Amino acid sequence: MSSFFLAANSILPLFLIILLGYVMMRTEVVRPGWVDILNKYALWIGLPSLIFVALIRLDFRLSEYGSFILLNSAYLVCCILLAFPVSVLFKTTLQTRRTMFLLLGFGNISYLGIPLLSSALGPEALGSAILLAAIYPFWMFTFAIGLIEITGHEKVHILVILKRLIANPLLISVFLGILASWQKIPFPGALIKTLDLFGQSVTAIVLFSLGIFLGAQQIGTRRQWLPIIGLSLFIMIILPGIFYFFVSRSGMTIVQIRSSVLDAAMPVGITAYAMSEQYELNALLTGRLIILSTVLSGVVLPLWIVFTS
Hints:
Number of helices: 14
Number of domains: 1
Strand content: under 5%
Number of strands: 0
């Protein structure tokens, strides 16, 4: 039990920031429009700065991260494909099935995952956290979005998918950071310090934004939340548990294993809600799943931290 409280205490500051955003939204000190502004700062400035600086300081070797990238990619592809049997089993609508492509695999990897892994596992987990922040959106904007378009009534726009992928700031920063680290490219100290300042600011900003988002959502009735509870536990406990069974027998390091499982157990991310709105999917289901899974993560993630240790 003491290990659980130590793990919970290590991530408590992160959830206090989320709580502050929630309270300020509920008391109308801030407005929902803040979410879009803060998220744009994080997506285009804060997170890319954090990722780039961390990668140029990382001695990246493909031989060290090859199985890590492969296994996490395989996990995501399997989670996305699970939408087919799950939707058949529970007889969901086509709209909900298409929403499942986003919900079953894509947690809050960047906004919550990067600060949480750094806080709970230490700075040695930052490299794994950053690579995961690239792996997850890669499969979201290619495989998952592709299936959403293929199974819907819209035409498949390959060029739009590619453009979205190429223009993703997180993927760009990962590519440039790995290239700079590999080629040992020197950068002016003033530039690195500037990017460091942006990177250090992003954790509080994205978590505060998440709190505002949660505070702006409708509560709903108790009956409406019952299927959300089951889906949250499936995403955050059962799927990561199966994943842990396989990765614990792989050749990955213990930090890579713990990082992979913790990110697999993350609550559903805000990006899934944005995509649900854009493709006219079940945005209400997505929003409520984000709320409940984020609340449950305050208990579930410390349990995973203890279990994987």
